[in-house]
């Protein structure tokens, strides 16, 4: 569909771990008019990545070359120029970026470190421990920055550079997050690119407090008193930061009046792309990792530090849970038994909720929530003859969803609706399991995720700055498409079973972490009794 040119177009660019996606929307026709994606592994093989990560590095190290992201952006812009969609009609562009990645520049705009440490780099556990100890413990850390120090956050990457790469640290004059670096490139790069941050992504650094809106001098000085000067200013998320560069105007035909808005992290824009901009909606992303987040009007702080305390990109707040293990167990069992999504669903239909008390703790590759980088999986309640395809399929499905819920319970929310994104949201078994365990209706959201959220944010900002301000709910509503065919409601009999399963999972998790809790063996007997009652 060709756009309504008189209205103008808006673009969202998502720089994720594995790919780069460009989405262009037309607000007059209320349609997505262009989508393009670049897979780093396949389309940019010269960077030697697998799943977007440079190969051949030490165990636990996850890094990428920031120039790869710029190259991917160039590739999507070239494809846009070759399409029927005129780049000169794009009025505003916004960037979504994978959170927590560290990009370091010198005064002239050169990369001082040629690779960026990513969110899933687990090589700096020691830095987290040292920072927390020096500042006075976890409680003090949470008071200072609203979060504990986790291996994913940016603070420990900076501290690791300070400890082990001091010359690079000293040469660095600007520390960026991924989307800030792309903003700098879009607005001119070495030729006057804008160096700025915004609250959403900045709240995941774990040096800036989302509740107070201030940097923590105490934690910063624990690393280096001069560190504060290496961060650019933090500006509001709902404003533009500059105009697109002359180079991109000349090369791809963008309008010289095209503005670039503040951008944000992929989770903040994932919220917008699922319509999560009011209380009562919870978004669940079912991908390689699993995330759960919800709009809040007041700051959220988890005393344990396991739920991330973030700002969103609308001037509000976005507490977020992330588990490292989600699709990995599911994908492995599909591969092992040569199953499709459909045949997996058929197997699940033949098995009973609760799995007769057999439970999987799916910590296959360490776990982020709870914070157990060295964790391993646990199979509980399995007899000698229980490792069958059917029982394992049910265990994998229940284990992963229960693991996700076990972190979510700390948010103390009673959602009206769970909105699902990610590849697993296309599975009916996963949709029903989410509904039963979370005790709320679940429905997949169609569309382009964080990239769509970025484009919608661009439209919202441009309208506000051009005398046409509207509530963000009104801007995004026409673009949020729910897959009603896959909507699932909690089943009463399943809910009864999963309430005990949730207790069992929590009890086992506590025991594995050396903490007191209910007796898991007694809870397993309760499950068996309930299963017999429903025979």
Key descriptive features of the protein:
disordered N terminus; six-stranded mixed beta sheet; seven-stranded mixed beta sheet; 19 helices; 535 residues; Nucleotidyltransferase, domain 5
User: What structural class do helix, strand and pairing data support?
Assistant: alpha+beta
Total beta strands? 23
Q: Percent helix among the residues? A: 25-40%
- Could you tell me how far the N terminus lies from the C terminus, measured between alpha carbons in angstroms? 54 Å
CATH class category of the largest domain = Alpha Beta
* Rg, alpha carbons: 23 Å
User: Proportion of β residues?
Assistant: 15-25%
> Overall 3D geometry?
globular
Major beta-sheet overview: 7 strands, mixed
Q: What's the domain count?
A: 2
Query: Which regions are unreliable across 5 or more consecutive residues at pLDDT < 50?
Result: 1-6
CATH architecture of the largest domain: 2-Layer Sandwich
Q: The CATH topology of the largest domain is what?
A: Nucleotidyltransferase, domain 5
Q: Kindly report the average pLDDT value.
A: 94
What's the total helix number? 19
CATH superfamily of the largest domain: ATPase, nucleotide binding domain
How would you explain this protein's 3D organization?
Strands 1, 2, 3, 7, 13, 14 and 15 form a seven-stranded mixed β-sheet that branches. The chain has a six-stranded mixed β-sheet with strand order 18-17-16-21-22-23, sandwiched between helices. Strand 4 (49-50) and strand 5 form a beta hairpin. With 535 residues, it is α+β, with helices and mostly antiparallel strands. It contains 19 helices and 23 strands. Mean pLDDT is 94; it is low at 1-6. The protein is globular and about 70 Å long.
